[in-house]
Amino acid sequence: MRIAISTGGGDAPGLNAVIRAAVLTAINRGWDVLGIKRGFAGLMGEDEVIPLTKDAVRGIAHLGGTILRTTNRGNPFHYPRLQPDGSIVEEDRSDELLANARQLGIDAVISIGGDGSLTIAKLLCDKGMNVVGVPKTIDNDVSGTITSFGFDTAVNTAIEAIDKLHTTAESHDRVIVMEVMGRDAGFIALYSGLAGTADVILIPEIPYDIAKVCEKIAARDRAGRHFSIVVVAEGAFPKGGTVTLIGESLPGQARRVGGLCEPIAREIQRVTGKETRSLVLGHLQRGGMPTGYDRLLATRFGGAAVRAVAEQKWGHMVALQSPHIVTIPIEEALKQPKRVDPNHDIVRTARELGVSFGD
Ligand code: F6P
Q: How many whole angstroms from 285 Cα to the centroid of ligand 1?
C-alpha cells in the first residue's frame, strides 16, 4: 500500500501533528508514505513529491506551519497558468494529476484542507482517485465536525492579544478595536471576545449598526468604564452593507476580506469623542505552536485518516463528533458551511453579560 499526503489552503497550527500521526500509523502498518508538496502542485510537475519516513516526521508535532508547504492557488481543476503575454488562464489539470499519481503507484491520498481543498478532494474522488479528507480550518467553518485543529490555537492567540490590549486601553481611557480572522464565520471573534471579556463583538452572522456600537461605548463611559474593547471578525459587515475587501486577490485565490477595524475605530472616535485605536491581529492567528488540544485533535485525525484509508472510506473525511472521531461523506460536510447560530448559548450568554453585538 502506498499513500500520499497533501496539505492545501491556508495553513493551521496542527497540520504537522496530523502529518506525523498519519505517517507513523501508516508506516507501522507496513505502508509506504509520500508527501505531495504545496497542495497538489507536487503531482502536477510544479513541485516535488517526497518520501515521508519516520525520520522525516521526527520532532514536528509541536511546530506550526506544514512541512509539506501549502497554497491557496492550487486548484487542479482551475490551475492558473501564466501566458507568454503576461495574462493568466485557468486550466483543468486534474487528468494530469491523476495520471502522475498512478505513475507513482499512489493507492490513496489523504487530503488535509478546508472547504476549498475538501471540494477538490471530492472532485478528485469522483474522477476515480481514492481520497480521504481531514478537515482543517482555524475559522471553524467546516460542518460535520465539532471543531478542527487550529481553531483553539487561534482563539488562544486572540485571547492573549485581548488581555494585553485591555491593560493599555484601560491606562489610556481608550477604545481599541481588534480585528480577527473569520472571512465568513465569526467563531474566533465570538469565542475570544467572550473569553477575553470584550465589550463589543461583531461577527458576519449578526450585521451591526455602528450607532449601537457607539451607544454601548458611551454607556460604559458614563458608568465610569472609560475604556472599551471591540473584537471584530474580518468578515463582519453593517446592516444593509457589505463586507470590506482588502487588496487584490491573485488569480485562483478567494477574495480577501478585512481591514474594517480602522474605519470602525475612526467612526467610534468621531461619534463618542473617545480616543480609539485599531489592530489587525492577522496571520499571528495562523502561526506558532498548536495548543495541547489542537495537537491531540490533529494526532487523532491523522490516525483516524489512516484507518479510513484501510477501510476504503473513499470520499469521506474524519470528523470530531465528541467524544468520538468518526468518518462522514465529504459532500455531507460541504452541503452547508458552518456558521455561528445567533441563538447559540454562547451568544445568549454574551448578551446576558452585557456584551453588545452592535444589533
Ligand atoms: O483559513 C481561513 C482564513 O483564516 C480566513 O479567515 C482569512 O481570510 C484567510 O484565511 C486569509 O488567508 P490568506 O491570507 O492566506 O489568504
A: 10
What is the atom index within ligand 1 of the atom nearest the CA of 137?
1
Confidence grade of residue 231 (pLDDT, cut at 50, 70, 90): very high
Give the model confidence (pLDDT) of 300-327 as tens digits. 999 999 999 999 999 999 999 999 999 9
- The angle subtended at Cα 70 by Cα 65 and Cα 74, nearest 5°, is 165
CA of 236 to the centre of ligand 1 (A): 14
- Predicted TM-score (pTM) of the model is 0.96
- Please name the amino acid found at residue 140: N
Q: Based on the structure, what is the number of domains in the chain?
A: 2
Q: Is 341 a catalytic residue?
A: no
Q: What is the CATH number of the domain that holds 278?
A: 3.40.50.460
* Residue in 11, 47, 139, 294 annotated catalytic: 139
| Cα–Cα distance for residue pair 359/245, rounded to 1 Å | 22
SS3 250: coil
Q: How many angstroms does the Cα of residue 10 sit away from the middle of ligand 1?
A: 6
Whether residues 23 and 144 share a domain: the answer is yes
Q: Is residue 192 included in any domain, yes or no?
A: yes
